[in-house]
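On clarity, I found the account of how folds are encoded harder to follow than it need be. What matters is that the chain and its backbone geometry are given together, residue for residue. I therefore recommend that a typical entry be quoted early in the introduction. An entry of this sort, consisting of the sequence and the corresponding backbone structure tokens, reads as follows:
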Amino acid sequence: MRTVKAAVCYEYGSPLVVEEVHLESPGREEVEVRIEACAICHSDIHIIDGEWHYEAPLIPGHEAAGIVTQLGAGVEGIAVGDRVVVSLLWSCRRCRHCLEGEPYLCIGEHPLEDVHSKFTNRAGMELNRALRVAGFAEHTVVHETQIVKVPDSIPIVSAALLACGVITGLGAVVNTAGFRFGRSVAVVGCGGVGLNTVQGAILAGATQVIGVDIEPEKLDIAREFGATHVVHAGETDAVQAVMDLSSGGVDYVFVVAGVTRLLEEAADMICKGGGVIQVGMPPQSDTFAFAGQRFMGQRSLKGSSMGGTNFQREAPQLMDLYLQGRLKLDELVTRTYPLEKINEAIAAVAEPATLRNVITF
């Protein structure tokens, strides 16, 4: 057993408590990782605020990278000292989704989230892990399928972003949408994930990429990431603007902002044969409505889960793109903070210019 510092959520909507906790050694097929960087994702904030169904007390954080420090029995292909990116994505390797090559839809029982987290506080209370990682801790233990090696040439802070934000945004284009060369795109919500949707569309060969947001700072950054046009939704009718720019509707609208109303608006931005891809996650209690024939004309609405990413296969490919200068990672990092200032880092996520704040250890 190891004693480590972690940021713990004891009460929803309250500041995280940074304290010493106990972490058990890895079991079979498990790996202990010394976390060196963990980005703050909006999903973490939803969990901390009690908007998603996770039981406190818990340790959030799921977009992480670090160094392997200990191996459990049966682990292969990984060695102590390896630099790795750590994701919530895992594979039980037995359920029908995993067997069919869809590990991002795995329905197997995760031993560390569904059974026993391996974290306890000093009073002996078990601390749950949100989204399987518990990345806001100096060390964590994860299943071996949750990690991928990182070359020394990639900064560890940048590598951490591959665990969630990059694959969620980029994968929505190349995997979920099955994007075809020459299509047109609108990306609604140009924050950290939305910018990766923009990058994905450019890499996939989109001829038109329209960024839509209410924050002018984010639209400026969207242009830097490759958007061909931008729409300031706070000053103009976004639906009409997209229809005008695309001469009748785009092929795909990726709704990255977690606002239900935007799904309804997106359906009015697509052309015949076009599709709305839901990337962001609105509150579970929200509902939306469409006219009865809204999706006639071969239109569609589809949800995207972690960008439909096969993490073991695609993370190394994205690392190659970064090393070739074709994928932006460093530019996504807004600021780094020590663990002791995690509540300050979380509060700063609301600032318009923030893409990813990263906790470093």
User: Anything to note?
Assistant: The first strand starts at residue 2 and ends at 8. The CA atoms of residues 194 and 256 lie 6 Å apart.
